[in-house]
């Protein structure tokens, strides 16, 4: 009820203004946020990628791009928090307006474009937070780095965040950075994964610890592309696949006044598409690589459907905006 009242007020504001206000308000709550259920029960724990997760419900990247609110978000009951996407250098992202609510469809279209404060700001926030939970850091490339040199940006990010993350996610699936999704296939995917996993080996030797690497993929892939990703991920020793990012498809919202807005569509209209990719990967991999299911989770039943399709863990973002902390508690109950 409390969140429903807050949401009614926030949804009267521009989506980005509401986003910033909500996070600042959450941080201002401080210890009071713990009243929303941060503790986990023994039967909720999951061991995935060699990491012990206190519960299987996480926050997807994108909500806290710079790691400004790690502790406040974790206090809402998430089993893990993923921050980013971070790029080597700060960048403002695409021009506004760039985020749109489709309230009746419980969906969002965004074309933010990896707006973030760069590695220096994110690392300062991580060090300041001194977070003891499971922290994922999602990495990408700057918008003005030529796609032929994209690997350089990913390696720069990996070098910087490696010692600070519980795991690192390589994001090659945002639709809002030109040509980024070409990194999901063929020689470019091979080059990127080979470079990242090779650098991981060097960093593991240097730091005397091995951080898992996850690859986040798009929902807009045909069966052949999904098969190719599964094969490449297996061959290169990727530790997890996150399925999926937002979609550029509009069939699910055909006729909506906002359907013509460019950007990635998330929320309920994404659920079936993202779950189909998850199920396909599960069948191909047969447990060799763990899967993290994200896309369109707005209820505990949705979270269960993701695990039924093969996910070991789930993440929420748009559903959290529409449902609030109650979604986290409901999803956790559903997966116990």
Provide a descriptive summary of the structure in words.
- The chain has 336 residues and is of the alpha/beta class.
- It has a single domain, classed as Alpha-Beta Barrel (TIM Barrel).
- Helices cover 39% and strands 17% of the residues.
- The strands form three sheets. It has an eight-stranded parallel barrel with strand order 3-4-7-8-9-10-12-13, surrounded by six helices. A three-stranded antiparallel beta sheet has the order 5-6-11, with no helix packed on it.
- It is globular.
- The mean pLDDT is 96.
Strand proportion: 15-25%
Counted by DSSP, the helix tally is 11
Report helical residue fraction: 25-40%
Largest sheet: 8 strands, parallel, barrel
Q: How many distinct domains? A: 1
Strand order of the largest sheet: 3-4-7-8-9-10-12-13
**SS class:** alpha/beta
Which key terms come to mind for this protein?
39% helix; 13 strands; 336 residues; globular; TIM Barrel; alpha/beta; 3-stranded antiparallel β-sheet
Brief rundown of the structure:
With 336 residues, this protein is an alpha/beta fold. The protein has helices at residues 2-10, 15-29, 70-74, 118-129, 150-161, 186-207, 223-236, 271-285, 300-308, 318-323, 325-335, and strands at 46-48, 51-53, 57-59, 80-86, 99-102, 107-110, 134-139, 167-171, 213-217, 240-243, 264-267, 291-294, 313-316. An eight-stranded parallel beta barrel has the order 3-4-7-8-9-10-12-13, surrounded by six helices. A three-stranded antiparallel sheet has the order 5-6-11, with no helix packed on it. A two-stranded antiparallel ribbon has the order 1-2.
């Amino acid at each position: 009820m409390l969140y429903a009242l807050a949401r009614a007020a926030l949804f009267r504001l521009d989506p980005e203004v509401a986003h910033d206000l909500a996070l600042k308000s959450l941080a201002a709550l401080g210890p009071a946020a713990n009243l929303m259920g941060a503790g986990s029960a023994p039967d909720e724990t999951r061991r995935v990628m060699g990491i012990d997760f206190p519960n299987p419900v996480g926050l997807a990247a994108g909500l806290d791009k710079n790691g400004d609110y790690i502790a406040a978000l974790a206090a809402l009951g998430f089993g893990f928090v993923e921050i980013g996407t971070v790029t080597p250098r700060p960048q403002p992202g695409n021009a506004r307006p760039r985020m749109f609510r489709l309230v009746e469809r419980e969906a969002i279209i965004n074309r933010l474009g990896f707006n973030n404060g760069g590695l220096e700001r994110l690392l300062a926030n991580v060090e300041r937070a001194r977070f003891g939970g499971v922290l994922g850091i999602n990495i990408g490339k700057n918008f003005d780095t030529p796609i032929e040199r994209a690997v350089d940006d990913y390696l720069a990010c990996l070098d910087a965040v490696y010692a600070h993350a519980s795991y690192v996610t390589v994001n090659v699936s945002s639709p809002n950075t030109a040509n980024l999704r070409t990194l999901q296939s063929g020689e470019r995917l091979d080059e990127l994964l080979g470079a990242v996993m090779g650098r991981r080996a060097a960093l593991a030797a240097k730091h005397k610890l091995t951080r898992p690497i996850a690859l986040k993929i798009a929902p807009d892939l045909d069966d052949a592309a999904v098969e190719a990703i599964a094969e490449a991920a297996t061959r290169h020793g990727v530790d997890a696949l996150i399925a999926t990012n937002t979609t550029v498809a509009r069939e699910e919202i055909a006729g909506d006044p906002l359907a013509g807005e460019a950007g990635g569509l998330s929320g309920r209209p994404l659920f079936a598409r993202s779950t189909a990719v998850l199920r396909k990967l599960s069948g191909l991999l047969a447990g060799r690589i763990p899967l993290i299911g994200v896309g369109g989770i707005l209820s505990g039943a949705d979270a269960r459907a993701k695990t039924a399709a093969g996910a070991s863990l789930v993440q929420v973002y748009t559903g959290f905006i529409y449902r609030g902390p109650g979604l986290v508690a409901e999803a956790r109950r559903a997966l116990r």
